[in-house]
Structure formats: structure tokens, C-alpha cells
Amino acid sequence: MAENTSISNNSGIVEFNHHLVTDQETRMSGSGGSNSGGTSIGNPTASVGTVSVLLPSGGGTKRRSAVGSNSSHNGGSASNSASISADLASLFECPVCFDYVLPPILQCQSGHLVCSTCRPKLNCCPTCRGPLGNIRNLAMEKVASTVMFPCKYSSSGCPVSLLHSEKVEHEELCECRPYTCPCPGASCKWQGGLEQVMEHLMVAHKSITTLQGEDIVFLATDINLPGAVDWVMMQSCFGHHFMLVLEKQEKYEGHQQFFAIVQLIGSRKQCENFAYRLELNGHRRRLAWEATPRSIHEGVSTAILNSDCLVFDTSTAQLFADNGNLGINVTISTNV
Description:
The protein is an alpha+beta fold.
């Protein structure tokens, strides 16, 4: 918690003849019943020593998955188990997009399945061209509850297979899912691997200043500008890159709040190796916040929603500002 005085830490019919249809009909025929908006990045005007001066600007395939085998450690039984699990999971492949058909499972009158994402886009069953209807396939739902499905990011290296009830939650946090651009605002739609993030920032967001060192001063200018504003800069130390964000939001008319946070251009696991400290200093006043940096996989919105960052209002900002400019001391340290 921030505290004053003391330091604290897809209309058309899609036609597909999928090889699994025959297998599914053989197995299951007749088994069924009756994704701060609009603001842009602050532009740097000068960098002197360890002080960064930022000027703000307002505004605002077809996939098939396979389950890996651990037979080298557990012998043939593990290999057979993985093969059986993969065979069962394949029964749930959507004949249109090849994603998995997960409960609640609906079928056409002949028992063919299609996933919930593709179904609204279709006028008839893509397999038999019969009406899709709203028939629940309770038998397949029961089977689905016992099948281990591979993570949707298996093609990106995730080795995890898990029950469908756990799949969505895992995939939201999976370290193998693509990273999005960590800059505040909704204008940049870039996605890519972790190793591509910094290259993207240097090419697409050249205005962001990068300072070297574990102890710097982040100087945000014109903090009195109306509306939502973001100030952003990068800090490089300990062989890693950190993104510093100061965001001003108008919670309701006449009441503005500032949120300051540090993100690591890295994974959640890597974040555990670091800590950061944000500090505002004024005449006989000090306001500080200490925490573990968040991965850019999470973004700043979650932290702001939970106030898990340095939070202060306009009146507090004025206590530490100098002619409308606010300096924040930023210190990065390691936990090892």
C-alpha cells in the first residue's frame, strides 16, 4: 500500500470431410439426447544523466494438437496412455476449425458435432448438411469430462494436457501464449514471442526513452493536462528490460487518480527474481511503494483494477510536483 510519510514496501456453408467423422459416427451414432483506452505514449524531449523527461499526449489455420509422451521415464504404459488420450481428444475436434468441441456439446440430428465458435456461423451441419438443431450430446459431454486435452498453445511449446474444466483458466495464464504489446492504450494490436517484444518496441514505439541503471528518475511532465494520459519509459538493468508506466485516469468528473507501476519484459517466473521501489519526495514528505514487478503478460489493467501499484490522487501529486512536473525515483533490485 502507498502511504504518506513512511516508506512501504467467421455467411456460408462450410464443407469439410474430416477423417474423424466416420470414426465419430461409428462410436457415437444415435448417442445424443432429444476479447486505459485511447491514450498514446508520452514523447521524450530530453534525457540528461539518469533523468528522463517525458511529454505526455492525451487521447486515447488449421490446428492439430498432439499429446506428448513421457515413455522414456515411465515405459510403454505412459506412451500408451498418452496415445489413448490423444485418440480420445481427437474425437472432439471440430470439423471446421479443428479446435475442440467442449461442453455444453450440441449435435445435429445425425450426431455430428461442431464447436461453439463455428456453430453460429453455419446454416447447416458441415458434415451431413442436415439441420444443426439444439440437441445436447450428453454421452460425449460425459466422455469429455475424463479426457485430457492439450493446451491450445501446444504448438508454441506448452507441454500441458488437462481436463476441459481447467483448460480455459490455464490458457489465460499460459506462458506460451503470444505476448501483446505492453504499451498502454488500445491502438497497437501487435502480438509475438517474448524475444520479439523489445524489437517491436524499438521499431514501432521509438519515442519511448530507455535509461540504463538500477536507480533512475522518471520525470513526467505536464501532469495537469486534462483527461486520461500515459507516461511511459524503459529501464534496463541486470540484463533485463523494465517498462515504467504512470497512468492518469478520471474516475469520475472532477476526480483524477494516478497509477504508477513497473512491468518486466519477461515471464511471471522471471518476475520473482526482482523487486522495485517507487518513491515521491517533497518538502519533508515521502511517499513510497515497493512490490514485485508484474510480467507484461498481465498488463497494467489488472494491477490498476486491484490498486496493486502506487496510487495517489491529484492533490497528493501537487504536493510532490514542481511546476506541473512529477519526478518518481525508480529503483530495481534483485532477490537473489
